[in-house]
What we know:
Blueprint: E1 4-9, E2 13-16, H1 24-29, E3 34-40, E4 47-48, H2 51-59, H3 62-65, H4 76-84, E5 92-99, E6 105-111, H5 117-122, E7 124-129, H6 141-146, H7 148-156, E8 161-166, E9 169-173, E10 177-182, E11 185-188, H8 197-208, E12 213-215, E13 218-219, E14 228-233, E15 237-244, E16 247-248, H9 256-272, E17 274-275
Parallel strand pairs: 7-8, 7-15, 11-12
Antiparallel strand pairs: 1-2, 1-6, 3-5, 4-17, 5-6, 8-9, 9-13, 10-11, 10-14, 14-15, 15-16
Helix pairs in contact: 8-9
Amino acid sequence: MPLYAWRITPPEHPVPFSPQGETLDEATLALPPGLYTTLRTFDQGRKALGLCAHLRRLYRPLPDLGVTPQGPLAVIPRLLDGLLLPLRPREMRLRLVLSLADGSLTVLATPFTPPPPEIYAEGVEVVTVPLTRRRPELKRTAFIRESLAQRRQVREQGAYEGLLVRRGRLTEGLTSNFFFVRGGVVGTARRGVLYGVTRRAVLYLVRQLGLPLRYAMLPVEEVLTLDEAFLTSSSRGVVPIVRIDGQPVGTGTPGPVTRRLQAAYAAFVARRARPFARWRC
């Protein structure tokens, strides 16, 4: 699958280069350490969802880290629109990487194929992995390297995702946020996790639907008491979890709350995704 890469030099000048590696993660690890965000396009590569939220999460920590970005955040939507123009009508998966060394921006892109429909209709199995994210509010490229062994474990076990365990409690996924449902109440961790852009959208939808919400990290031993569970991410949306470490979640099939949130999220995407050039961040 092709992989595209550009170094952004002031003022707003993208310089294409040949990335090292064959995947976004491999290309990311070949770059200097930094912060990153990943998102997908919609409507044949013309639109993005939550673009400003992705960019603000990427840029907001820089002053506290003593890093000065080489260019302003506000120009990035228009810049991305120009980079994507020759790649349309293909949907793309984008990764923006900000170097902690010099504040430079690198843009990576690869064709995006949505998960197969059965993932959403039938749900997935996940496994727990003994790992915690240092400074989880930062989406650090270093975490990709730190979690290589756990990602390999997930693949070897034939699972869809790994759930991080801290002090006996489920926190988040390796590449996603984690939600659970018990007694009609939606639960997810309040702190100590990455503040995912799709997570924020789903929390908004939970409130819009009038669903009860409880912020809590789930003890691993309580998995069998759950009625439903699901994960969220920008590339995948809302994905039902039907087994955790081989144990069924609820009936072992996607539940009604998850179904409602899947439908609500699809409608949210249809309303809120807009052309790259129309974002003002």
